[in-house]
Amino acid sequence: MEKDLQAKNYNRKPSRRIPMWLPYVSDIIAKKDSVKIIYKGGEVERAYSKIHSIMFYGYVPPLSQEFLERCAFFEVPLIIHRRNMPKAVYITGSIGTMREDNLSLQIRFRNNEKKRTYIARRILNAKFLGMRWLAPYPQDFKNRYYTIDEMRILEAHHARRYWDRYYEQLGYGRYSRRERGNALTAALDAVSKFVSGIVLRWVVYHNLSPAHGFLHEPTDYPSLVYDLMEPYRGYIERAVFDAFRSKEGEELSNQEYTALAIYAVEELMDSKVYTPATRQIVTFQELIHGAIIALLSYMERRSQKFVLPLPGKPNGGRPRKSGYRLYGRSAGPTDFWTEARELGMVYDLGKIKRRGKVKKNRES
Predict the structure, then answer these.
(1) Residue 305 burial class via C-beta count within 10 angstroms: exposed 0-12, middle 13-18, buried 19 and up
(2) CA distance 180 to 172
(3) How far apart are CA 281 and CA 258, in angstroms?
(4) Is-contact 327 357, C-beta < 8 A?
(5) 25-30 β-sheet, strand order
(6) Rounded distance, CA 308 to CA 240, Å?
(7) Contacts of 306 (CB under 8 A, 6+ apart)
């Protein structure tokens, strides 16, 4: 099964950058403009200019200087993750000479308590909206002021309810999100590291510091990356949820469940969505890039609000003053609005009925 998923993963259009997930790599052959990687399940050769990011899962051989230098030159971040590692290893090129001094903007806004609190609040608001398919939006979050510490406490309580339902409905009720040793946690950890690589590339590309977040405070890990992942976690974790549901009753190993989850997220990244923030149809991956663009738009005062691009449906009225555009389709003389309404129905999470409980899965 894992081999089949990997084969599907790389039979894609070669014209755009794609994130790569490579389990148990045995050899990396670096060339001037491309790299050939042999992993468990197959091999792939791809130009650096067509690679978005690379996550090595499990064992990885020593990385050559040439390979690291080419990845830095083409701005390809590397993530090394093992199932039992509490933290992943991130390798990126230096920020270097800046075309625009976005780093100073980021630090200035981060040191301003009012602006930092506002940005953190907008991030959490989007996160809670994206998780409504399984956990209700927290009461009073929109109606009262919260400090960043209070928001973290509120988020922790909401996450506890969300994960309790998530694990229970997939038949893993005896486990928690922080508990290791089960297929679901291993798959979710791998997915989190995989998506963090996608966010990391765009953060570095726009000359921001990955380690200086607004909601997540520590600077010893890429906290800004995890900040900008939060608005999209509900959609990503729902894709994993549906993938696990589709294999209910089948005997799969932990590695096969992880492969299944990664493949489901890759499919999500390539799927089209409508975003009301810019009235465009874009890929889900471009929404994630849009989070960084939206943050820059707010910090550069091109917009008065921090308007995150989220999946939605057309709702009429005047266009929002988001201050930016994404790489995607705009309204035109086609069936744009019909397609936008159809895509919007898929992500109308507030009206999706809760799924019923399922029988417990047998652990691999």
Answers:
(1) middle
(2) 12
(3) 29
(4) no
(5) 25-30, 34-39, 42-47
(6) 23
(7) 118, 119, 122, 294, 295, 298
**The residue type at 283:** T
State how far the Cα of 198 lies from the Cα of 76, in Å rounded to an integer: 10
Round to whole Å and give the CA distance between 52 and 199.
10
SS3 (DSSP) at 22: strand
Residue whose pair of structure tokens reads 């403009």 in the numeric block? 33
Rounded Cα distance, 321 and 294, in Å: 11
Residues of the chain with pLDDT under 50: 2-3, 5-15, 331-334, 350-364
* Pairwise CA distance, residues 303 & 309, whole Å: 13
pLDDT, tens digit (0-9, with 9 covering 90-100), for 314-324: 877 778 888 99
User: What residue type is assigned to position 255 of the chain?
Assistant: Q
pLDDT 10s digits, 290-315: 999 999 999 999 999 999 999 998 87
**What is the residue whose two structure tokens read 């093992």?**
82
Helix 183-205 vs helix 284-299: crossing angle, to nearest 10: 50
Q: Which of these, 269, 249, 128, lies nearest to 195 by C-alpha position?
A: 269
Residue positions counted in the chain: 364
